Amino acid sequence: MYKVSIIVPAFNEEKNISNALDDIISSFVRLNIKGEIIVVNDGSTDKTENIVKKFISNYNFIKIFN
Q1: CB 35 within 8 A of CB 5
Q2: Which stretch of DSSP H or E encloses residue 34?
Q3: CB contact set of 3 (below 8 Å; sequence gap of 6+)
Q4: How far apart are CA 66 and CA 44, in angstroms?
Q5: Local structure of residue 32 (DSSP, 8 states)
Q6: For residue 3, what pLDDT band results from cuts at 50, 70 and 90?
Q7: Do β-strands 62-65 and 2-10 pair in parallel, antiparallel, or remain unpaired?
Q8: Which residues contact 58 (CB under 8 A, 6 or more apart)?
Q9: Measured between alpha carbons, how far is 14 from 27 in angstroms, rounded to an integer?
Q10: Is the Cα torsion angle 51, 56, 62, 66 positive or negative in sign?
Q11: Of 19, 37, 53, 55, which has the highest C-beta tally within 10 A?
């Protein structure tokens, strides 16, 4: 089993962030990977942060840095 850190830069990505996180999570499961997802929110003015926080409430391996 591998342990990895995935860094996802995000700026006003409310239309894309859910799909990106879903894809990464699916890959973790499919490939039997343990790790973390770090979203770097670079000052988004849309709902990017709120969407990521919903994922965080369901997955303890996701973090966000604003």
Answers
A1: yes
A2: strand 33-41
A3: 33, 34, 35
A4: 9
A5: T
A6: confident
A7: unpaired
A8: none
A9: 21
A10: positive
A11: 37
